[in-house]
Amino acid sequence: MTSPALLVDVPRDENITAEVMRSLHIPKGVRRVLFRTLNTHRRLMFEKEFESSFVRFMLDGAKWLVENTDIKLIGLDYLSFAAYEEATEMHKLILEQRDIIPVEALKLDDVEVGVYSLHCLPMRLP
Questions:
Q1: Which domain of life is it from (predicted)?
Q2: How many whole angstroms separate alpha carbon 14 and alpha carbon 91?
Q3: What is the pTM of this model?
């Protein structure tokens, strides 16, 4: 899949709540958004141990996204876009209500905010 994607910066020390989603002012019609968070600044993708305090989507943020945007793909800079204890409910919300594709484990170091051509290739598994 190749398509344009908007990279946005999430305010540091903030999970992605409805308030944060409103503050990002993502234009209508944008369908793919990559969220750079404190996870990138903390370099969590380079750590060997899982960090449970990662920045993630909160249920109200995901609900706001589903109800107020045209987004069909979200990307986040850690191993999950949802907290473990909310993962089932979060996946139901974005997959069943809007069929939004989550892309996780993005390394967004040294990438400027802006629009990019996004290439998502399937992972080759044995």
A1: Eukaryota
A2: 21
A3: 0.90
Helix (H, G, I), strand (E, B) or coil at 57: strand
CA dist 4 and 71 (Å) reads: 12
Could you tell me if 47 and 93 are in contact, meaning their C-beta atoms sit under 8 angstroms apart?
no
Rg over CA atoms, the chain: 14
**CA–CA separation, 120 and 32 (whole Å):** 12
| Confidence (pLDDT) at 45 | 92
CA distance 8 to 37: 9
**Contact predicate 103/3, CB 8 Å:** no
Q: Roughly how many angstroms between the first and final C-alpha of the chain, as a whole number?
A: 21
Does domain 2-119 fall under CATH 3.40.47.40? My reply is no
Closest listed residue to residue 65, CA positions, set 105, 20, 96, 106: 20
Tens of pLDDT, residue by residue over 63-73, are 999 999 999 99
